[in-house]
Write a structure and sequence with these properties.
With about 140 residues, the protein is an alpha+beta fold. The chain has one domain (about 5-40, about 70-135): START domain (Alpha-D-Glucose-1,6-Bisphosphate, Chain A, domain 4, 2-Layer Sandwich). It is built from three helices and seven strands. The protein has a seven-stranded antiparallel beta sheet. Strand 2 (about 40-45) and strand 3 (about 50-55) form a beta hairpin. It is globular and about 45 Å long.
Length: about 140
C-alpha cells in the first residue's frame, strides 16, 4: 500500500486578509483560479458553514463535492470530502501581520499523484498572489 502524503505549503502575499478571502470565495475568480488545476476547472459554493463545494469542469460537470466543515471569515476554510470511504480534506488559512498575509494550504492525503498535486497547489497559491497584486 502506498504511503499517503499531505500537501502543506504557503505563500506570503502583500495584501490584507479581506482581499485574499474575496479572491478565494468570489465566483468572479473561480475559473481563473480553477484553471491552475485544469483548463476547464472551477469551484462553486456559497462559502457558508455546512454548504457544499462543487469542483466542476465546464460547462457543468461535477467532479467532486465536499462540505465546508469549518469556517472563520477571512481566516479559515476547511472542506471535507468523502470518496467512497476515502477521506480527503482541504484547509485554507490566512494569517495577516503588518499588511502581509500568509496564505497556507493543507490538502490530502494523496498517494501516487502527490508530487503533481504539490506543483498544482504551488501554482494555485502563486495565482492568488498574482491576482492580489493586480487588485
Amino acid at each position: 500500500m502506498e504511503e499517503s502524503k499531505i500537501v502543506l505549503i504557503s505563500i506570503d502575499i502583500n495584501a490584507n486578509s479581506s482581499k485574499i478571502w474575496n479572491l478565494i470565495t468570489n465566483k468572479d475568480y473561480a475559473k481563473e483560479l480553477g484553471s491552475e488545476f485544469d483548463k476547464n476547472a472551477f469551484v462553486e459554493s456559497d462559502w457558508k458553514l455546512g454548504s457544499k463545494v462543487h469542483f466542476k469542469y465546464e460547462p457543468n460537470k461535477i467532479v467532486s463535492t465536499g462540505t465546508i466543515s469549518k469556517l472563520i471569515e477571512k481566516e479559515l476554510i476547511q472542506i471535507d470530502y468523502d470518496f467512497s470511504g476515502f477521506k480527503y480534506e482541504e484547509k485554507y488559512t490566512i494569517e495577516e501581520s503588518n499588511s502581509i498575509s500568509k496564505l497556507a494550504i493543507y490538502a490530502g492525503p494523496y498517494t501516487s499523484d502527490f508530487e503533481a498535486q504539490k506543483v498544482v497547489w504551488k501554482n494555485w497559491l502563486s495565482k492568488v498572489k498574482e491576482l492580489s497584486d493586480k487588485k
